[in-house]
Amino acid sequence: MRNQYGLIGKNISYSFSKKHFTEKFALGNLDGYVYENFDLQSIEDFPKLITDNPELKGLNVTIPYKEEIIPYLNKLSKKAAQIGAVNVIRFTKKGTLKGYNSDYYGFKKSLQPLLQSHHKKALILGTGGAAKAVAFALNELGILYTFVSREEKEGMIDYNRINATTFDNYHIIINCTPLGTSPNIKDFPLLPYQFFTEKHIAFDLIYNPEETQFLKKAKKKGAITKNGYEMLVFQAEKAWKIWNKKF
Predict the structure, then answer these.
(1) pLDDT exceeding 70 applies to what percent of the chain?
(2) Short-list 29, 90, 27, CA closest to 60
(3) Is the CB of residue 7 less than 8 Å from the CB of residue 38?
(4) What is the pLDDT of residues 25-79, one digit of tens each?
(5) Count of CB atoms within 10 A of residue 92's CB?
(6) Contact, 196 vs 156, CB < 8 A?
(7) Which of 18, 19, 66, 98 is catalytic?
(8) How far apart are CA 44 and CA 33, in angstroms?
(9) CB 106 within 8 A of CB 233
(10) In the sheet that 121-125 helps form, which strands lie side by side, from edge to edge?
(11) 66 among known catalytic residues
(12) Which residues form the Shikimate dehydrogenase substrate binding N-terminal domain (predicted)?
């Protein structure tokens, strides 16, 4: 019997996860372990996926289903429930599906080495599942944050509100939107990039391309920059531990 794992999302041929876990299984001589992409055009296709793949032991979840998947799960970990987004599903011995979040862990572990004493406030660009995980991690780190949305909503600001004063107060800017992801590599969040300085961190959850327009523009002004690759490695290793819990 195979040990099958995989990723659910939409238009995920670019996926980091399949390459990462396929290489991991090969290096570890884990015979019978496979990792596959499951491209779902709708989250409503999820129950059929489970029925059609009885050897599944665990799944990763990516855009756009990190929030939509929750009603299909039997249980959530405490942190996944607090975050309101799931990127790891474990198939328990009882046959139930439990949702976890390892995104927050990966982001936190990746950001921490960059932090200095003046990094006290962050702007989170985007409001989806990944943004929620980032917010949870920032909260654990004691960093205040504000969400930035295309439309101003309660507890958020829109891009038009961001100016020199904003950059004076917020020294961490995190792109949690898909803007700039390959193949649309010319796209970027509409920010006044001239206000970035060497005191700022520009963190992009995107890893393909390696350096987005967002990171390039921030780097030109002296900002410390980092893409999402290391975060993905950390969250993937956390997912592997979750799948292999002995209970």
Answers:
(1) 99
(2) 90
(3) yes
(4) 999 999 999 999 999 999 999 999 999 999 999 999 998 999 999 999 999 999 9
(5) 12
(6) no
(7) 66
(8) 27
(9) yes
(10) 156-158, 144-149, 121-125, 172-175, 201-204, 224-226
(11) yes
(12) 7-89
**Rg (the chain; Cα; Å):** 19
Comparing C-alpha atoms, which of 31, 38, 25, 130 is closest to residue 84? 130
Exposed e or buried b per residue across 3-32, where buried means at least 16 C-beta atoms within 10 angstroms of its C-beta: bbbbbbbeebeebbbbebbeeebeeeeeee
The one-letter amino acid at 82? Q
pLDDT tens digit sequence for 72-101: 999 999 999 999 999 999 999 888 999 999
CB 198 within 8 A of CB 223: yes
Cα–Cα distance, 130 to 107 (Å, whole number):
10
